Amino acid sequence: MDSFYVTTPIYYANSLPHLGHLYTMIVADTIARHKRQQGVETFFLTGTDEHGINIERAAMKEGRTPQEQADYVVSYYKKMTAEFALDTEHGGYDIFMRTTEPFHYQGVSEFWRRVAIATTPKGNPAIYKGHYEGWFCAPCAEYKTEDEYLKARNPDDPPTCLIHETPLDRVSEDSYFFRLSDFDEALLELYQSRPDFVRPESRRNEVASFVRGGLQDLSVSRLKTSVSWGIPVPDDPDHTMYVWFDALINYVTALGFGNEDRAGAAGFQKFWPALHLVGKDILRFHAVYWPAFLMAAGVELPRAIVAHGMWLDPNGRKMSKTIGNTIELDVLNRYFSIDAVRYFCLREMVFGQDGRFGYEGLIDRANSDLASGLGNLSSRTLTMIGRYCNGRIPAGRIAEDKFLLAKRSGVDTDDNAIASFVEHARNEFLLHLSGFAFSRALEVGWSVIARLDKMITEAKPWDLAKDENQSQTLNAILYRSAEALRWLCVLLHPVMPVATAEIYSQLGLSSDALRTGNPSSLSWGGLTEGTQIGEVKPVFPRLDKKKIMDEISKANDSSGAHATAAEAVPGATATSETQPPPPLTGATEADAVPGVSTFIEIGDFAKVDLRVGQVLTAERVPKSDKLLLMSIDIGEEKPRQVLAGIAEYYEADQMVGRKVVVVANLKPRKLRGYESQGMVVAASIGPEGRPVIATFTEEAPNGARLK
Ligand code: MSP
Question: Which residue among 14, 49, 111 has the greatest number of ligand 1 atoms within 8 angstroms of its CB, and so is best to mutate?
Fold first, then answer.
């Protein structure tokens, strides 16, 4: 049996979990569930990083021992993983790794010993003893070079960390060094020979240019007298290992490296190498230091390092308790289903880039994509099967003598069209998922929902039900819809395990099968005629946006400083884990937010007159594949005539009645003999620039101005 190993970072045990931590776990959990569906034996690791000066300090402030501090934070992590169904009991992680486990000490010591006797690719000892003189940021757990800190005005004061804005510690002591500088060529060769080693590509380029810029040797120990909370250096107990050295090695000790005889170990040989999921903030540690350590220890390199972006607030600012724009896990838990949160995280963030997270956005997506989208498709399909077919899955075929009747009501007599649409979508969905393009994959899933909605709306089953002669046509429509719903459940199960299991059992199927239902082996027609459906219940209840938002803001007001559980923990500085990370050499803000390279003044933006419009009529422009000719009401006396290059993607009928955004003060121009008196705004997706029309999820009157 194939095996697969996926990891999240292990999180610092100085502060309580927040949305960022939850996010990486959701991504890893989705990948793990998807692999399990494919019959691959999968091991999923998450956990906590419990050593180092930062945890020592956090504990001291609270009057706890470092171990008590770690236990306290771990109890919150365990609570979070249980609440969000990410723990073993709910089919989530296989190990919650803790670096204070004795078996980890054993494995790390073995790893150190191997590196201590190794030579670098340039033939020098990989570890040597020297003297470290420099600045260290405790919250980053990182030594800082001159370009990574801000010098104080007063030369007697320490510089401050650019990320945390807190003073750095002066370190001047004997230390063991890892000869990282000798690994530059080996690392560059690695990135070149294995282009998929660091993903996405833009991050690989950043890492490569960081290495090309020259590597400095890394101090990998502290004197025990300065940092005692850590793993002792083997055979030299006056030194404690650098926390990142100890932490990275968790990925192998968890499986059994250096502690092979541990009862219950998953097996290093069986599962290594891993796919490491990390935020871009810690890419350097994983894509530069970690492979170099492994090369020195003679251990196989990871499968890949996959870096995601950071969650920002809806205005694109970093989340911070001072601003009061953090996303609270207990609020998420109180108002939203686990699946809605998972869906939003994966749909909203274009993987690899930064994303914006706000409660309003989450409510809007939950209502439009889940309640009105998947939920509505499921309940209308099942309700009609209940009403028109006595609650049994009907036959899907239309006999030849009924073809004419079916055609008359606009129904395709052959279900091949819908079957091949769904099959094609399945293949695309899987392709995107394997490339970590979760958002694209979900878009494809929702194109199936749109297609089915259209099929139902056009066929009008409620009218077909009135005509006995049309019973086969009615059955075929309902069968197609239910069968496609079955496919959607299998595809979406790793993303929304709870809701898909619910829909699956409403379809009359055993939800256990979803966990191992391989989406690649789905074949059209698998839903058996006559299956008794289950009780039909709404899967995604509509969320009352106003009520929820009022309650959230009231709670924030009454708690004064917008308190979060994390504030209870010392050392959880307001910015400690929510700041955008320091860019690696070559990374720019424009890189994180694609297409944004320069800023404009508000006055520049105000020059564009954007209006809410509604499409009144739409038709294809003769002899043009691309152009639709529309009349759009933007609240003026007469509708505007607007041409849009969207005909390859939108049917004319589909546009009628739609709310759109129109650029109203664009100079009119002629295309194919028609004057276009404005422009419809759309997102441009993928290399082929597929348009996705901008619209509104709430009522917006025609002519209203967008500001
Ligand atoms: N302990 C180290 C990791 C050691 S791994 C061998 C560490 N811990 S951390 O608690 O700071 O967690 C960092 C990780 O949390 C990020 O890489 C990312 O996975 C997640 N996130 C923290 N804040 C985040 C956002 N605002 N947005 C998305 N993910 C974020 O670094």
Answer: 49
